[in-house]
Design goal:
The chain is built from 21 helices and no strands. It has about 350 residues and is mainly α. Among the domains are: about 1-120, Serine Threonine Protein Phosphatase 5, Tetratricopeptide repeat; about 120-205, Tetratricopeptide repeat domain (Serine Threonine Protein Phosphatase 5, Tetratricopeptide repeat), CATH 1.25.40.10.
């Protein structure tokens, strides 16, 4: 621990990891948890979530509440171990019983949402309230959401605003973002566009990609703030890096069009493929259009247009119909023209009328 925190000895994470490893093997569960955190953070060794989960498992089995709590989050999200909501809830309860407050908050979210165990909103609210009172920002977030939505308590937007401000001040990005939404709407708090923008910025900085996306949209459109396309693209890129599919999609559009940041078709295609695989049907079609321009294999283009058509993108259905018509299969072509027309694509309706004459 002295090596890890630099207390009395110069900080040396490599030596700290070595000693934690010896202590863990010697039956000290807390050291297993510290070693797991090093693997999870990627310092001083390479990041390895499988190893992190294994060491948290060992620490938890030895009774270390912190290890159980962190393992619960990994099991919940499927990081380094198979996702299992029921087991995640059990681990969170075990950690909470051992006095690990963040695990009590995780358990409260599971109880509120019925993730891995039966829904119990009243107990969830009690756990959130206790966590918030003890200084846990995520506890304040959960309590605020229940107050805002009137779950297990009377709806109280003003109280929700106060609790979200506490969460935001305690470095919870979701709290800043959700408070920004209330402030923008004037729901339970005074309406203030400038403050809402500032809160979006705080949410983005503190880890909520939704804040980055919404702030990027303001800079892209010039609403409330001065229009700055480079700034918008930078925020979308930040959101995308934090896992926001919406951020990746908006960035792809800017990269494809070359709005200020320079046109980069290969990057746009990579981004569209990512968002398409995540379920954004329109981006499957955007990818197909770029692939067609780049003279990619027609079967590959058709595959992505098919995905887009299944997702209800009318122009994609029209493209699939054209492909079948070129392949001299009028029945299949007609069925896809029909889908496209029904979805509101006028050229498909015109084509259908022509085929029926």
């Amino acid at each position: 621990m002295m090596y890890e925190v630099g207390e009395e000895l110069d900080r040396h994470l490599g030596r700290a990891a070595e000693l934690h490893g010896q202590a863990c093997e010697g039956g000290v569960p807390a050291s297993c948890g510290h070693l797991a955190a090093m693997y999870a953070d990627g310092a001083p060794m390479a990041k390895d979530e499988v190893q992190a989960a294994a060491y948290y498992e060992k620490g938890c089995a030895g009774g270390d509440g912190l290890s159980c709590g962190r393992l619960a989050l990994m099991v919940r999200d499927g990081r380094g171990v198979k996702a299992d909501p029921a087991r995640a809830a059990t681990l969170a309860r075990q950690a909470c019983d051992a006095g690990h407050q963040p695990a009590c908050t995780a358990l409260a979210f599971a109880m509120r949402d019925g993730a891995g165990l039966g829904r119990d909103p009243k107990t969830a609210l009690a756990l959130f309230t206790k966590a918030c009172d003890s200084g846990d920002g995520r506890g304040c977030l959960g309590q605020a959401q229940m107050s805002r939505d009137g779950v297990a308590t009377a709806a109280n937007p003003a109280k929700a605003g106060e609790l979200l401000e506490l969460a935001c001040n305690r470095e919870v990005g979701e709290g800043c973002y959700e408070l920004a939404v209330l402030v923008a709407r004037g729901q339970g708090v005074p309406q203030d566009a400038a403050r809402a923008t500032s809160l979006l910025r705080d949410g983005c900085t503190k880890g909520d990609p939704r804040g980055c996306v919404q702030l990027g949209t303001l800079f892209q459109t010039g609403r409330v703030v001065v229009k700055e396309l480079n700034r918008a693209a930078s925020l979308y890129r930040e959101a995308c890096g934090k896992g926001s599919i919406e951020g990746c999609s908006k960035l792809a559009g800017m990269v494809e069009s070359g709005d200020v940041i320079g046109r980069d078709i290969p990057e746009a295609m990579k981004l569209y493929e990512r968002t398409c695989q995540a379920g954004v049907a329109a981006d499957c079609h955007n990818l197909a259009l770029l692939m067609k321009k780049e003279r990619r294999d027609a079967r590959e283009v058709l595959e992505f247009d098919n995905k887009a058509c299944t997702g209800g993108v009318a122009p994609a259905c029209f493209s699939v119909a054209q492909a079948w018509e070129a392949a001299r299969d009028p029945l299949k072509a007609k069925s896809f023209y029909q889908k496209s027309c029904t979805a509101g694509h006028p050229p498909a309706c015109a084509k259908l009328r022509k085929m029926e004459q």
